[in-house]
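In response to reviewer comment 3 from the previous cycle, which asked for concrete evidence that the modeling workflow produces usable outputs, we include below a single protein chain processed end to end. The sequence was submitted unchanged, and the resulting C-alpha cells are shown without manual editing.
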Amino acid sequence: MKIKDIPSFERPRERALQIGLEYISNEDLLAIILGSGTSSLSAKEVSLHLLSKLQSLSSLQEESVESLSHIKGIGKVKALHLLASIELGKRVLMKKLLIEA
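The workflow returned the following C-alpha cells.
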C-alpha cells in the first residue's frame, strides 16, 4: 500500500504536522526519516519491517549502514539517513547535558 492510499489524517507527515512529532509513533517517525518506500512497500511498511528486525529502538544506534541496507526497503542512502538522524540526536543530547552540567 502506498502512502497516498492511506487517508490523509493517518499519513506520517500529516499526523506530525497535526499533533506534533512528540505524539506520533516510532513507526511514523521512521517513515518520515525514510521519506519513501519501494515500489511494493510504503515508508510505513518499511519502518514496521525495520522495527521488527531490531531488538529495540535504541539498538538502531548500534547498526551499520551495511547491516541496515540488508533490510528490505532500506538501501545505503536510507540507512545513512537513519544513522545520521541518530547521530544528530546524540549531539543535541550531549550539548544539552553539557549545558546542564
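The chain has a mean pLDDT of 91. We consider this sufficient to address the reviewer's concern, and the full set will be provided in the supplementary archive.
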